[in-house]
Design brief:
Pfam families: DUF2165
Helix content: over 70%
Shape: elongated
Distance between the termini: 24 Å
Oligomer: single chain
Keywords: Membrane, Transmembrane, Transmembrane helix
Largest sheet: none
InterPro entries: DUF2165_transmembrane
Order of helices and strands: HHHHHH
Strand content: under 5%
Radius of gyration: 20 Å
Protein name: DUF2165 domain-containing protein
Length: 178
Amino acid sequence: MQHGLVDRILRLGTLPAAAAALTGALALYITLVAFGNITDFDSNQQFVQHVLAMDTTFKDDDLMWRAIGSRTVRNVAYIGIIVWEVLTAIVLIAATGWWIGALRRGVYERARRAATLGLVMLMLLFGVGFIAIGGEWFAMWQSEKWNGLEAASRNFMLAGVTLLLIHLPSRHWRSATP
């Protein structure tokens, strides 16, 4: 009897259980980010406004033509970011649910695919949206006050590590017969 309990507890140390936990952690994270951006719209709106306006950069004439002067366009960009965050949260929440079911059944393909989609969405948000477009195109790296590159890099790396973990070869991924 006690041996069965130990085996069930040790199952939490498998690659699928780790994938489920990390997917769930990132689902919670992006859900809280999206919720915060919706309920406290102004805080991060200011961030996006300043990055796109490039008003806290070095004001190099060779770069300033990239600045977006229209507040409306900047707001549309911010709303687009929030929509992407919400969609990513939905996918990662669903993936987490599928992971939980998969841990019981031993069939992981749906959970792996959904988690992969959500994690790539998260990596695109931070890698393309914040690091490439915000950081390089809009020279966010030049701003002392409105520089989100460290946080974006951290989020990109967490999602990337989780994605790699999900795709590591393992005997645990072999589907159990239903």
